[in-house]
From TrEMBL:
It catalyses: 2 a phenolic donor + H2O2 = 2 a phenolic radical donor + 2 H2O. This is Peroxidase. Disulfide bonds join 37-113, 70-75, 119-323, 197-229. It comes from Aristolochia fimbriata. The record marks 64 as: Transition state stabilizer.
């Protein structure tokens, strides 16, 4: 099975070359820092690995941080900026993690290649490495992003919400040039990580103000969630988004959605729409077999597309000296 995974990696690289014409969307390119900072990707990788070895839960944090960055003003590192009105202080971003990993990598890169590697690229590379470290796929990340000079909490209203209908999710992804398949595939990132009871408890006790639970929840799983998140319990208590293999990047998340074991309403709704249901079924059909690898391959493709959303290149933006503040 490991050999099958390894066979898919070169395919992903070939796919990237065809997708980007060998140079990348805009001025993004695989190996952008090959001459200007040859150790850039190795430094980011070793930094992520060091933090992961201390706390494996940092992986979903970094993946989510990159996703939230790209969905607001594009992949430009704007989510990393501190300040009362900055993007990272918007309500949907208050639980984001992984800032210290990006800062750590930036400090090391500034010591060897000052003013060369953008914070946006560090984040894109760190997200890839975070997936790889949790037994997920790896892919060649096109780099060359520049850091944005604007960070506003108002923009975070565009982020997908746990209560979004499929129609709303579809529109939010389409606005970024992402398809239904990208939507389902990228939501598959929920195969790792946790969420707060606060974000789904309404499904357990008073769904749509009926006083009842969401009928799409599997009954045995409902009891499990109610034990974990009592009606008047601590809303900040965390629950795994994939009940079966929460620390491993695999396709079991889709099996859970198929079986009514999705934690977030927005996740479970993927089974209720004809178009997204077909994609979920394809990934869920054989979690440990070839279809699991199909998810790995598709996830790599969709992450490359996500990472190219509204990027700043060339003379746009800047290369920050410190990721949390503009130059």
């Amino acid at each position: 099975m490991e050999a099958m995974v390894l066979q898919l990696i070169p395919l992903a690289t070939l796919l990237i070359i065809s997708f980007f014409g060998g140079h990348g969307q805009g001025d993004l390119a695989v190996g952008f820092y090959k001459s200007s900072c040859p150790r850039a990707e190795a430094i980011v990788r070793s930094t992520v690995e060091a933090h992961f070895n201390k706390d494996p839960t940092i992986s979903p944090g970094l993946l989510r941080l990159h996703f939230h960055d790209c969905f607001v003003q594009g992949c430009d590192g704007s989510v990393l900026i501190t300040g009362s009105s900055a993007e990272r202080n918007a309500l949907p971003n208050l639980g984001l993690r992984g800032f210290e990993v990006v800062d750590d990598a930036k400090t090391q890169l500034e010591a060897v290649c000052p003013g060369v590697v953008s914070c946006a690229d560090i984040l894109a590379l760190a997200a890839r490495d975070a997936v790889d470290l949790t037994d997920g796929p790896s892919w060649s990340v096109p780099t060359g992003r520049r850091d944005g000079r604007v960070s506003s909490s108002a923009g975070a209203a565009n982020l997908p919400s746990p209560a979004d209908s499929i129609a709303v999710q579809r529109q939010k992804f389409a606005d970024k040039g992402l398809t239904d398949k990208d939507l389902v595939t990228l939501v598959g990132a929920h195969t790792i990580g946790q969420t707060d009871c606060l974000f789904f408890r309404y499904r357990l006790y008073n769904f749509t103000a009926t006083g009842n639970a969401d009928p799409s929840i599997n009954q045995s799983f409902l009891a499990e969630l109610q034990r974990a998140c009592p009606r008047n319990g601590d809303g900040s208590k965390r629950v795994a988004l994939d009940k079966d293999t929460p620390g491993k990047f695999d396709a079991s998340f889709f099996k859970n959605v198929r079986d009514g074991n999705g934690v977030l309403e927005s996740d479970q709704r993927l089974w209720g729409d004809a178009a997204t249901r077909t994609i979920v079924q394809n990934y869920a059909g054989n979690v440990r077999g070839l279809l699991g690898f199909r998810f790995d391959f598709d996830f790599s493709k969709s992450m490359i597309k996500l990472g190219s959303v509204d990027v700043k290149t060339g003379n746009q933006g800047e290369i920050r000296k410190v990721c949390s503040k503009f130059n």
